[in-house]
Design brief:
This protein is an alpha+beta fold and 380 residues long. The protein contains eleven helices and nine strands. Strand 2 and strand 3 form a beta hairpin. The two termini are 24 Å apart. The structure holds acetoacetyl-coenzyme A. It comes from Psychroserpens burtonensis.
Length: 380
């Protein structure tokens, strides 16, 4: 067993750390306040290869492994979880989905732009009545011979307003249940495809979350991903990898809060000494560090499973369940260590605390992760 990173991994991690400090940090509070999508930064992340981290270089990607992906996600998330969710959805739901399950024509058409940040991708599964219960798709995609007609509403779609390429999950044949679901590539601007108002959110406010409306949207048959009825399996398989990205995001949010709290505790004085010298604070730091390391092990194990070609349904669910809990709990502690300053935006920890919450909700709530894990445990 080897816990060390390769030289290449360290280089990639440091590049992401440097980018986060120099490019994401300035303006992160303003973007959070104004809910501004970081268009320019997405292009820069594209130039650095962060928008297509695991995509094969023949399609314009960086050809890196899942370990590199989580290292980059952790570093970006320490500073700006809004930027990192844009990266995560684009990489592990959209690029991975098209590269792994799309056909050659779809790969060649979409990946070079998605992997370089010219295009941004969105993944449209959730609906007003189908968040956790993902087989209950009300959106329909009726087969009309050479094309499908999509009707319905999708909710809480990350990159929903800024997207260029949307992967849309819809029910074609209701009698077949989840085996009658398909996934489609829908392009921005398709007739009848409307982008609804932007959500005003608690956290990840610099990311772009919208309701989408599909009114008789015609989608050519060649835009279906996989064989007829593959859509639900596609969503589940893609989300397994997505959960590694969100787990890494949660890890980064927790680690970002911890690093700020440690630094603050070494300069802030109370009762005649730096507050880290008080056991009340020192023990908090010890717990934070331990919990974050434990989360890191689970996140790395899930990424390693993916790189090894092992099944990672359970390891990604465990990583997300645990890392998101750590993110929530430890960012609360980071605010507490900062005292009154923790409640003030310029100290960043209150934003990390708000951003942490979504990691327990999207790409499968913590309760859904427990369903996945418990079924795996019982099945053996
Ligand atoms: N890989 C392959 N197939 C899978 C699978 C997987 N990981 N998980 C389930 N399946 C298959 C099952 O084998 C089953 O197929 P068969 O009937 O042929 O055996 C089929 O899918 C249905 O599975 P279940 O019977 O387990 O279905 P269920 O109704 O009990 O629900 C669930 C399963 C795990 C709860 C699922 O509905 C789920 O994951 N829900 C959460 C959805 C989710 O994560 N939503 C997030 C939205 S996306 C998002 O947040 C993106 C964003 O913008 C950030």
């Amino acid at each position: 067993m080897d816990f060390s990173l390769t030289e290449e991994h360290i280089m990639i991690r440091d590049a992401a750390r440097d980018f986060a400090q120099t490019e994401l940090l300035p303006g992160v509070v303003e973007r959070d306040n104004a809910q501004t999508f970081p268009n320019e930064l997405v292009r820069k992340m594209g130039d650095l290869g962060f928008m297509g981290i695991m995509v094969d270089p023949k399609y314009g990607g960086s050809g890196m492994d899942a370990i590199s992906y989580v290292l980059i996600m952790e570093e970006l998330s320490k500073i700006d979880a809004s930027a990192s969710v844009i990266v995560s959805v684009n990489n592990s739901l959209v690029c991975y989905g098209i590269e792994t399950y799309g056909n050659e024509e779809q790969r060649q058409k979409y990946l070079p732009k998605l992997a370089t940040g010219e295009f941004v991708g969105a993944f449209c599964l959730s609906e007003p009545e189908a968040g956790s219960d993902a087989t209950s798709q009300a959106t329909t995609a009726i087969d009309k011979g050479d094309h499908y007609v999509i009707n319905g509403t999708k909710n809480w779609i990350t990159n929903g307003g800024r997207g260029d390429v949307y992967l849309v999950i819809a029910q074609t044949d209701r009698d077949k249940g989840h085996k009658g679901i398909n996934a489609f590539i829908v392009e921005k601007g398709a007739e009848g495809f409307h982008i609804g108002p932007k959500e005003d959110k608690l956290g990840i406010r610099g990311s772009d979350t919208h309701t989408l409306q599909f009114n008789d949207v015609k989608v050519p048959k060649e835009n279906r991903i996989g064989v007829d009825g593959f859509g639900f399996t596609f969503a589940m398989k893609t989300l397994s990898g997505g959960r590694i990205g969100i787990a890494a995001q949660a890890l980064g949010i927790a680690a970002g809060g911890y690093e700020l709290a440690l630094k603050y505790s070494k300069v802030r004085k109370a009762f005649g000494t730096e507050i880290c010298n008080h056991q009340a604070i020192a023990f908090k730091l010890a717990d934070m560090y331990t919990e974050i390391e434990a989360a890191r092990m689970l996140v790395m194990k899930a990424a390693w499973d993916k790189d090894q070609g092992n099944n990672y349904d359970m390891s990604s669910a465990m990583a997300k369940l645990y890392a998101s809990k750590v993110a929530m709990e430890q960012t609360v502690e980071a605010v507490q260590i900062h005292g009154g300053n923790g409640f003030v935006k310029e100290y960043h920890v209150e934003r990390l605390m708000r951003d942490a919450k979504i990691t327990q909700i999207y790409e499968g709530t913590s309760e859904i992760q427990k369903i996945v894990i418990s079924r795996g445990v019982i099945k053996g």
